[in-house]
Amino acid sequence: MKAKSIKGKSTEEIKSAVADSMADGFQPTMAIVFLSVAQDRKAVCSLLDEADIAVFGSTTNGEFIDQETESGTVAILLLDMKKEHFRIHSAEFQNKNYRETSKSIALKAKEDFKKVAFLLAVSNAATDGEEVLLGLQEIAGEQVNAFGGAAGDDYAFEETWVFTKGWESNHGMVCLALDEEKVSVSGIATCGWKAMGTEKTVTKSEGNHVFTIDNEPALDITTKYGGLENITPDNKDLILELAANFPLQLQRAKGDPVMRPGLVVDWSDHSFFTSGTVPQGSKIRFSLPPDWDVMEKVVKGVQNLKETKMPEADALVVFSCGGRILSFGPMMNAEIEGVKEVWNVPMAGMFSNAELGRMAGGNLEMHNLTTCCVALKEK
């Protein structure tokens, strides 16, 4: 399979880039499209459709095709994968039926492919990504390869979108189903945030609402360990500081911890809502602010993936948490460059609101402050 990555700041630039990519006879059949909500996604879909190119698309908090991160632009990975080796499915969520929706997509995919892998994107901040993954897993098996991210909207936290030809949704999912007997898919989700202090117990929680940790209000104990000050509703930077630098690390029986940053504070009792479920009685640790080691761990994780599972790749897709670039700033380019150099193949990536995938030795889960890398190779 041949792949090419292109980018542009407007639909016209993308139109020109697509034409240039095909000038040597390259005939892409599929486009993985990551773009800003400020871009005209319908126009981009239309021009790709005119070239008979299928679309898997998501809005972002930033996008890239190499080590230079962009915002407000369009990044596209073009692939000439055989059409019989993939299908694109999409669906709108109704009444929080996340698992049932993904199960229905997985059932359709299994009709086409005996062994199937998934690349997916979901929209709407309320979407439970873990339920989506569990639905795919229920049909395709516990060890299914499924990776993706939650759409962004340039950090506005208002309305996110996923899309494909003739369809878009601000509360749905788009899914690229791949015939794994014909296309090798291998990925890893890596975080790297270091833990501090001893394990603590979540003494009261409901879903993603964490009330108390070791019988102290969740906000109070977290900010105490983080050394944060001015803990008031007037401090508009508090949540950003908590989410980007001091997430909870939810301990798992197997695999690496899962990051659960606080995103919304309930000031009436100093509890907070996290990005995903934190079961009552579960064990957590607090985090240290990130440093270079965090990025090095991601690159080493991808290098290990190449050495142990995927020696060669045709293309690379990356879902990286928008919180990482808030934490690292321009240093984020070093992580992306390191990941790119592992296989040195065409790549496209997005900064997401959440990441979906499997950490080394872990289960399929929804993550935050994590980088999820997916390598593809047509057999």
Explain what the structure shows:
With about 375 residues, this protein is an alpha+beta fold. It folds into 2 domains: about 5-190 and about 295-379, no CATH class; about 195-285, no CATH class. It has helices at about 10-20, 40-50, 100-110, 130-140, 220-225, 240-245, 290-310, 320-330, 330-345, and strands spanning about 5-10, 30-35, 55-60, 65, 75-80, 85-90, 115-120, 145-150, 160-165, 165-170, 170-180, 185-190, 195-205, 210-215, 215, 250, 260, 260-265, 270-275, 285, 315-320, 345-350, 355-360, 365, 370-379. The strands form 4 sheets. Strands 13, 14, 15, 16, 17, 18, 19 and 20 form an 8-stranded antiparallel beta sheet that branches. A 6-stranded mixed beta sheet has the order 1-5-2-3-9-10, with helices on one face. Helix 1 (about 10-20) runs parallel beside helix 2 (about 40-50) and helix 3 (about 100-110) packs parallel to helix 4. The model has no long low-confidence stretch (mean pLDDT about 95).
Strand proportion: 35-45%
Q: How much is the average pLDDT?
A: 93
Low-confidence regions: none
Q: How far apart, in Å, are the first and last alpha carbons?
A: 8 Å
Q: What would you call the structural class?
A: alpha+beta
Question: What would you call the shape?
Answer: globular
Number of domain units: 2
Mind telling me the C-alpha Rg? 20 Å
Q: Helix segment count? A: 9
Number of strands: 25
The profile of the biggest β sheet is: 8 strands, antiparallel
Task: Assign a percent range to the helix content.
Answer: 25-40%
